[in-house]
Amino acid sequence: MVAAIALIVAIGWRRSRRWWLVWLPVCVVVGLLGALAARLYVNSEGLASDPAPFYLWVWIGVFAAGVAVAVLGWRGSSWWRRGVAVLAIPLTLVAALLALNKWVGYYPSVQTAWGALTAGPLPNQIDAAELPGLRNTVQTTGKLVEVDIPADASGFKHRSEYVYLPPAWFAGPTPPRLPVIMMVAGEFNTPADWIRTGNAMPIIDGYAKAHGGQAPIFVFVDSGGSFNNDTECVNGPRGNAADHLTKDVRPYLAQQFGASDQAANWAVVGWSMGGTCAIDLTVMHPDLFSTFEDIAGDHGPTSGTKDQTISRLYGGDAAKWDEFDPRTAMMRHGPYQGVAGWFEDTVTPTNTASPYGGGGGHRPQSDAPTGFGGHDEFKDSDEAGAADDLCATAKTVGISCSVHRIISFHTWQFAERAFSDALPWLAAQIKTPGATDSPA
Questions:
Q1: What Gene Ontology cellular-component terms does the record carry (predicted)?
Q2: pTM as predicted
Q3: Which CATH number is 120-429's, of 1.10.3210.10, 3.30.499.10, 3.40.50.1820, 3.30.420.40?
């Protein structure tokens, strides 16, 4: 409301006839072009699965129009109107960013946003140097440590990553050989996203508490190297992300924390782009991973259309597209033994007024709607039907899998719920001590 009022005041009422007939219409056109350009960019880059809500494009257009009003209306304006026009620019930008955040659910609270902005400490985070002093002690919660994993094998330039160690890791004189779950975030990401935004720590600690301190080790990896570098966890011009996760991260966990190095004890969990990474890493490397949870991933690594993907992710090498395509990889490798997967996807609530949707309940596949959240409006979206298609292919080559659906939208809140639902099954699949069999 403040942004809208500021922009109205900046436009003014006592203006020249030329302003009303020429310059204000130009500002409106600038706003429309700004909104259209943003929408075309999102579509061409394949940046989203659910079509954005209309109010996002409105606020982007209002922001672009506000910039035009400040620039084109500068001459002949009073000092106070100039000040209001300048003030309207950050206000409308914040409104647009709030609309974006409401769509994707990236920051569920001001506290979360402030923690990410200031890079404040994460829950139960300690310095790695403190770990020896905690050996052979009783811990009521797990501990999180920041690690700088050498990239000798991959050459992938990455940010610091995080390792969660459950209470059982500290209990004896030497670390037990615990199983590991690798956590991969979405396209625009930091390694801490699963922790800050996905609320993973309370979920994991809750599981550990219910199982006498026993839980897997978790590693929160960097699949991009920077916030907006969409690698899709493949090797290519954007970096050897696949090699980093398989040749750098995995050996490091075994060497530094005594984790198991057996494929049967490793799982990958991913959300959105990370969901694609989860199945891709597992079916391409069944000698390294045996279990995956694909949360709203695509049919395969995607960066726009197929031709755009081959160009952007593989430098024009079409053979690489086949190499990293999950269905092609499964058919080339099969049959598999001891590999299992959990797919989780959204079913849009009937009432689409809130982008966070209704968090509960499951709905049969036949009830899945189209339109907002059903992906038919986004011709470049590759998520539509991916869970069913991939699971169907997986079953033909001996991979045990199941498809689950939650009434929700494509947000971090959905990812949090999906991870919480699957964790008991994941822990049982990778043979976590104390885990009981949990049907998929």
A1: extracellular region
A2: 0.80
A3: 3.40.50.1820
